[in-house]
Design a protein that fits this description.
The complex is a heterodimer of chains A (about 220) and B (about 220). With about 220 residues, chain A is mainly alpha-helical. Chain A has one domain (about 10-220): Orthogonal Bundle (MetI-like fold), CATH 1.10.3720. Chain A is about 80% helix and about 0% strand. In chain A, α3 crosses α5 (about 95-120). The longest helix of chain A has about 30 residues, at about 20-50. Chain B is mostly helical and about 220 residues long. Chain B has a single domain, classed as MetI-like (MetI-like fold). In chain B, about 80% of the residues lie in helices and about 0% in strands. In chain B, α1 (about 5-45) packs across α4 (about 80-105). The longest helix of chain B is centred in the N-terminal third of the chain and has 37 residues, at about 5-45. Chain B is elongated. Classes of the chains: A mainly alpha (about 220), B mainly alpha (about 220). The interface of A and B includes residues 71, 88, 196, 203 and 207 of A. Chain A: Belongs to the binding-protein-dependent transport system permease family. HisMQ subfamily. Chain A: Pfam families: BPD_transp_1.
Chain lengths: ~220, ~220
C-alpha cells in the first residue's frame, strides 16, 4: 500500500508544500557553515603557529586547546554553550552558538593541520629568513606559511567537509538548521523518506561543491 | 551539591557509559571490517562490487552522522542501541574505507608484482603482504577515527537512546542548580576525555613500537 511506502508520491507532495521550512533550514546551515569555517581557519592558524612557537607556555596552550576539543564530543560542547552558559549570564542566539560551537571544535583540527604543515617545512627556512633580517612573524607569514599550503590544504579540506556535516549538531538544540527542520517536520507527520532524502542530497551537494573548490585551490598551490 | 554525588546517580551515568562503550566497540569493529573489505574490493578492482563500494563511500562521506542516526532509528525496525551501532558503522565504514585505501596505496606496487612472481595468489598477496603493511601505516588516522566514533556516538541521544550524553542530560533535568549542571557536564566531559585521550596515547605508543620494528 501507499502508506507503507516511505517514498510515496503524496509524501513528496507534502514536502513540496513545506518547502519554505526546508529552504529556511538550508539557509541557516549555510550561514553556520560559512561563519564556523572562517572562525575555525582563524583559530587553526593562531593555534597552529602557537604549536610550533619557541615559547613553551604558548606551545602548551596549543596542546590544551587541541587535546580538549579533539577528545570531548561536539554534542557536549554545544549543549554546554546552550544549556550551561546562560546560567552565568552568557546568552547567545542559536545561530551564534552554532558558529562558535562548531568553529571552535573544528579549529582544533585545523590547528593540527596548520601545525603539521609548518613542521613539514624545513627548520632551515626560518633560520635563513631570520638571518636575512625578517623578524619571526614576517618569516612565518611570508616564507613559512605559503610553503605549507600543499601539505595543509588536503587536511583542511577534510576538516571543512566534517564541519559541514557537524553543523547538524544544531538539530539537537533546536537550532533551526536543515537537519532540525527535516527531523521535526518528518517527526510530526512520519514522512521520513522524502525529508531525509532531501536533507541528505542537500548536505551532499554542499560538501561536493566545497571539496571541488578546495581541489581548485590545491591545484593553484601546486603551480 | 552532596546529594549529587551519590551511588544512584553514579550508577545511572555508568549505565549510559556502558551503552556508549557498546556502540563504540561494535561500530569500530564493524566499520574496520567494512572499510577493509571495501579497500580490498577496490584494490583488486572486483567488478560491480568495487563500483558499489565507490558509490557508497562517496555518498556516506558527504552526509552528516546525525542523518545516518535518524534513518537507522526511524526507517528500520531495530531497537535503539542496535540502530545506533548500525548508523555509526555505516557512517564510519565509509571513512575507514578511505583510510584503508590510503594505507594500501602507500605499499609500493612492486610488492604485488614480486609476490605474484613468487606464485602467491591475489588473495594471498592481499592477506599476507599488502594488508599487514597497510595497517601499520594507517594506525594513527584509524585510531583518531576511533575517538571520533566514541565522540559522535553522542549523536544517538538525538533519537532518545540513553548513552552517556543522554543520561547526563536526564540527570541535569533532575537538578536545577547551576553548580549541579556544571558538575555533571564537567564529569561527563572528563569521562569522554579520559577514554579518548588514552586511546590516542595507545595509538602513539603502538605507532612508535611498529616504527621501531620496521626496517
Amino acid at each position: 500500500m501507499d502508506v507503507n511506502n516511505p517514498f510515496a508520491l503524496y509524501k513528496w507532495q507534502a514536502l513540496f508544500d513545506a518547502r519554505e521550512l526546508f529552504i529556511d533550514g538550508l539557509t541557516t546551515t549555510l550561514e553556520v557553515t560559512v561563519g564556523a569555517l572562517v572562525l575555525s581557519i582563524l583559530l587553526g592558524i593562531v593555534f597552529g603557529i602557537a604549536g610550533v612557537f619557541p615559547n613553551r607556555v604558548i606551545r602548551a596552550l596549543n596542546r590544551v586547546y587541541v587535546e580538549f576539543f579533539q577528545n570531548t564530543p561536539l554534542v557536549i560542547q554545544v549543549i554546554f554553550i546552550y544549556n550551561a552558559l546562560p546560567h552565568i549570564h552568557i546568552v547567545m542566539p542559536v545561530l551564534l552558538i552554532g558558529i562558535i560551537g562548531v568553529g571552535v571544535y573544528t579549529g582544533a583540527y585545523m590547528a593540527e593541520a596548520v601545525r603539521g604543515g609548518i613542521m613539514s617545512v624545513s627548520k632551515g627556512q626560518l633560520e635563513a629568513a631570520m638571518s636575512q633580517g625578517f623578524n619571526y612573524w614576517q618569516a612565518m607569514w611570508y616564507i613559512i606559511l605559503p610553503q605549507t599550503k600543499k601539505v595543509m590544504l588536503p587536511a583542511m579540506a577534510n576538516q571543512a567537509i566534517n564541519l559541514v556535516k557537524n553543523t547538524s549538531v544544531l538539530a539537537m538544540i533546536a537550532g533551526g538548521d536543515l537537519m532540525y527542520q527535516a527531523d521535526s517536520w518528518s517527526g510530526s507527520n512520519m514522512y521520513y523518506g522524502p525529508a531525509y532524502f532531501t536533507a541528505g542530497v542537500s548536505y551532499w551537494i554542499i560538501c561536493f561543491l566545497l571539496s571541488k573548490y578546495i581541489n581548485k585551490l590545491e591545484k593553484k598551490a601546486e603551480v | 551539591m552532596a546529594e549529587l554525588f551519590e551511588a544512584n546517580n553514579f550508577l545511572f551515568l555508568m549505565g549510559g557509559f556502558k551503552v556508549t562503550l557498546e556502540i563504540g566497540f561494535f561500530s569500530i569493529i564493524f566499520s574496520v571490517l567494512l572499510g577493509t573489505m571495501i579497500g580490498i574490493a577496490r584494490y583488486l578492482k572486483i567488478p560491480v562490487l568495487a563500483h558499489i563500494a565507490g558509490i557508497y563511500v562517496d555518498v556516506v562521506r558527504n552526509i552528516p552522522c546525525l542523518l545516518c542516526v535518524l534513518i537507522a532509528r526511524f526507517m528500520t525496525p531495530l531497537p535503539p542501541t542496535m540502530s545506533g551501532i548500525l548508523a555509526m558503522s555505516v557512517f564510519t565504514g565509509a571513512i575507514m574505507a578511505e583510510i584503508v585505501r590510503g594505507g594500501i596505496n602507500s605499499v609500493s606496487k612492486g610488492q604485488f608484482e614480486a609476490a605474484l612472481s613468487q606464485g602467491f595468489s591475489r588473495w594471498q598477496i592481499v592477506y599476507h603482504i599488502i594488508l599487514p603493511q597497510a595497517y601499520r601505516n594507517v594506525i594513527p588516522p584509524m585510531v583518531s577515527q576511533f575517538t571520533t566514533v566514541i565522540k559522535d556516538s553522542s549523536f544517538v541521544w538525538a533519537v532518545g537512546t540513553e548513552e552517556l550524553t543522554g543520561r547526563s542530560m536526564i540527570l541535569i533535568g533532575r537538578y536545577s542548580d547551576t553548580s549541579h549542571l556544571f558538575a555533571i557536564m564537567g564529569c561527563v566531559a572528563l569521562i569522554y576525555f579520559i577514554l579518548n585521550y588514552s586511546l590516542s596515547l595507545l595509538a602513539r605508543w603502538e605507532h612508535k613500537r611498529l616504527a621501531a620494528k620496521s626496517y
